[in-house]
Amino acid sequence: MLTATWSISSGWSAPSIVPYGPLAIQPAASCLQYATECFEGLKCYRGHDGRLRLFRPQVNAARFLKSATRIALPSFPPDEFLKLLVKFVAHEAPKWLPNNPDWRGRFLYLRPTMIGTSIKIGLQRPDEAMMFIVAVFVPADVNGPGNSASNPNSSPAPTAGPSTPPEVPSATSPPTRMKLLASKQDMIRAWPGGFGSSKVGANYGPTIVAQSEARRRGYDQVLWLFGPEDYVTEAGLANFFMLWTTKDGIKELVTPPLELGVILEGVTRRSVLEVCRSGKVGDVVVSERKAKMDEIVSAYEEGRMLEAFAVGTAVFVASVSEIDFRGKKLILPLDRGDSGGFATAVKGYLEGIMFGRFGHKWAHLV
Ligand code: PMP
Predict the structure, then answer these.
(1) Is the CB–ligand 1 distance for residue 30 below 6 Å?
(2) Is the CB of 266 under 6 A from ligand 1?
(3) 264: CA distance to ligand 1 center in Å?
(4) What global pTM score does this model have?
(5) Nearest one of 155, 131, 51, 18 to 363, comparing CA atoms
(6) Do 256 and 240 contact (CB within 8 A), yes or no?
């Protein structure tokens, strides 16, 4: 793992790469008492040409700064963060993703984290902090490269290089499927003026109860709704998209807007929006706008709902096959025999960049 420490008097220490292992912090440390913790999640991809790539890491670096600032942690300059990330990956990734054909199309998950470590029990701006980056190898997934719906958090920390190369299909496979259980009105993930748009740990722990309930009932994730209008916001740890035909017959791709501050601005979300607006994956009108569950139910009942999908680094692109909205089950076209073709096209295009099927400015070579 890579670590660097910070204090208000001396700033950031020189970072070092050390063996993965426990951290020594005090029980009174600010992160343990007051949740001064933020993190990032991104992947390093072993391309089909053998090269290692990161996908838009500058966007993660900027979000890391935004999250740290929201909880009074010190800033880590994005350019410096990117340099460290690249150094760490160049050191670590070859152990996990050896440069031979068997490992092309696989990835390593990276988890940069910052914690407040100062030991004053009174609530105040931390005057000591630590930044670390760890890597998590996500085992092979039957659904193919870059498409694991498994939660990287649940994977064991790496201890040794993998021994058996996974099966990697050469063509883009269809997205994994996801069933969503809409949140109840008494369980809110984020609210205006809160911190839902920052990647701070305090946003995640409190969602585990709802997530477990969804799993218990056979769903993969919670579809987080907001307000008495039941606006859709996010799908678990991913951003949410719908493709429907409007009442005027227009094919519209809709994702909830960022303006309320209740949504994390995903790197994947931003990329899907940019790719779709450029017309590279199909002819659709792209809208960032609020959508109520009522509108989704009407579109569904009137046969106008084409697809819904969730996007994020961990899940990548996952087609939504079912939404349970307070007992009303929307079985999306995917399960009626249609293909989920739009999500597949989006996935294929982004995968092409990540695994170097074609050159693109979003790919950051290591
Ligand atoms: N929303 C939430 C709440 C998340 O935790 C994530 C994962 N970072 C996302 C959306 C997707 O973001 P990204 O595409 O940057 O992984």
Answers:
(1) no
(2) yes
(3) 6
(4) 0.91
(5) 51
(6) yes
What are the pLDDT digits (tens) for 246-301? 999 999 999 999 999 999 999 999 999 999 999 888 889 999 999 999 999 999 99
- Cβ of residue 238 lying under 6 Å from some atom of ligand 1: yes
Ligand 1 centre and the CA of 302: distance in Å?
31
Ligand 1 and 252: CB distance under 6 A: no
Mutate to test the pocket of ligand 1, among 43, 223, 313, 350 (most ligand atoms within 8 A of CB): 313
Identify the helix (H) or strand (E) that includes residue 123: none
What is the token pair recorded at 190? 């984020």
H/E element holding 275? helix 267-277
Of the chain, the end-to-end C-alpha distance in Å amounts to 17
Whole-number Å distance, alpha carbon 265 to ligand 1 midpoint, is: 7
d(CA 350, CA 357): 10
Q: What pLDDT does 282 receive?
A: 85
With beta carbons less than 8 A apart as the criterion, state whether 133 and 151 touch.
no
Distance from residue 260's CA to the centre of ligand 1 (Å): 16
CA of 313 to the centre of ligand 1 (A): 7
Q: Two tokens at 213?
A: 């309930």
Ligand 1 pocket, 343 CB below 6 A?
A: no
Per-residue pLDDT at 126: 97
Q: What is the pLDDT of residue 169?
A: 38
- Count of helices and strands (H, E) across the chain: 7, 18
Q: What is the pLDDT of residue 171?
A: 52
* Amino acid type, 275: V
Distance 66 CA to ligand 1 centre (A): 14
Residues in the chain, overall count: 366
270: helix, coil or strand?
Answer: helix
Residues of the chain with pLDDT under 50: 142-170
Alpha carbon of 109 to ligand 1 centroid (Å) = 13
> What ipTM does the predicted assembly reach?
0.99
What number does the ligand 1 atom closest to the CA of 199 have? Answer: 5
Crossing angle of helices 57-70 and 78-96, in 10° steps, is 120
In single-letter form, the type of residue at position 292 comes to: K
pLDDT digits (tens, 9 = 90+) for 82-123: 999 999 999 999 999 999 998 999 999 999 999 999 998 899
